[in-house]
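Interim report, section 4.2 (structural modelling).
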Amino acid sequence: MEIKFTHGLVDKYAKDLMFELTEEENQNVLDEFEVIKENMDSIAGMKNISDVEPMTHPLEYEDVVLRNDEVGEELSVEEVLSNAKDKTLEEIIVPKVVE
Amino acid sequence: MKSVLLNIHDKQKELDRTFDEIQEHQKNYNSFVTLLEKVPLKEETSSLLSNVCYALKDNYSTKGILTTASSNTLRDYIPPFNSTVYEKLEAAGAICVGKTVLDEFGMGGTGTTGHTGVVRNPFDTSRIAGGSSAGSCAAVASGLVPFAIGSDTGDSVRKPAAYCGIVGYKPTYGMISRWGMLPFASSLDHVGIFTRSVLDAAIVADALKGKDEKDMTTWDSSSIHLQESVENSKDQKYKLFYIKEIVEEENYSNIKENHRQVIENFNAVLEHCQKNGILVEGVSIDKDLLAKIPSVYTCISCAEATSNMSNLTGISFGPRENGSKIDELMTNFRTKNFSPLIKRRFVIGSYVLQSENQEKYFVNAQRVRRLLVEELKKYFQEYDGLILPCSSSIASKIEDAKDMMKKSDDLAILENHMALGNFGGFPSITIPCGKVDGMPIGLNITGNVYEDEKVLSLASRVEEIIEEEV
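Predicted structure of the assembly:
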């Protein structure tokens, strides 16, 4: 069953995506969504569309094999942590998770 | 346009000129997020790109050099590793002069949404350069550098190239490694190249292509020699097709003057092509199917972007925001640093991926993607390439540039058809074909996957005809 797109639902999706929207941003999503949904519904309404295999990738690879499970080029811990703002030794400091 | 790359006789002089002009260029067009320090000439390599200056879109990782994707979320991010594209250019001895502005993470078509401001068109600074690879495009179009690197997810190299009167080439998917390129939508993202001639695009692509262990979508292109193919294109016999539903005037209810001139220009080019031995025929493709292009693009690109950008949390990289709990900290980071446009795209992506919507929207969009690609492939059996105008008009005024999605109209197919190149991974190139109201316009040539040699040879031949006749 289709769910109606509302201010509340937009906020819920935003929350799931871990950001908040201002009232104006929320309204802009709703306005734009009207247009997008109409266009997307026209796709869903195409005749026999379910018979078509979804195309997830532009090329058909026939010779893809799993690489050997060997350590390749890697970054040092120092390099990996070089952009973290709050760190100690080899770890990133975050607010307490378990209370 | 003859090769710029093959005609740089004094590299020191060219290096000096580029760095003498770069500040003024930045003031006029705002192409760069980061300007790099001038370096002395390097030891000459065997590459044609040795000691040639270029600009790099700021979504390619450069070790030790700020890489922002024009987003506040990465405004202080300094990658600890290099993208393969940058590595190859370094190995060739090319000199990067700066990292260029894009629409945030490549998600836009105007060049107006980067966190360091709007990029302006070198032909008229009151107009957009187009996007998302706006800064790279302006840097080549202004004559600052002979080539620049962009990326192309829907037409982000080929559309700005048209608006700025230069060549924009997106090779077959996987011919050039995307390792270290910050992703937007992985199944549509391509490396792209800006130059002032088709031959130069071939030279740059020859230097960049190749299988890369770090990018499993790359394939062996060692038998492909683009420069050589272009240089030997003169006597080839070509057969092109255009799509009647996109080009013929009767498909438009209210045609505006600029659009009419674009079509007239296109028809004139076709006529000259025919006169010069290139066969061009119109084919008919179901207009209802073509009309789905923008929705398929929106659906797939937003869904993939939503997933790709879930790692932007402000914890392991990016500016840290305040928060007493970890999720509060992440939410504050994403709320404060993503632009409203990106947030809207993410909400759409999230909607189409919800379990109750996924089949109806996301999976069906993937199905229509296949139908569109198969339709083109059918014609690629008979023809060497598809030729179409890049847009209905010239670059818009900056104040009119909106990235809001609008109700589908007559022009939606003409404005969005180049996304077909991304759906199918097809090699696709824009070349300049004249001016309307003093502003450049371009045409696009697209061919079948792996046939980059044919597409560039063909484009070079058409480029020559346009220069002689149009």
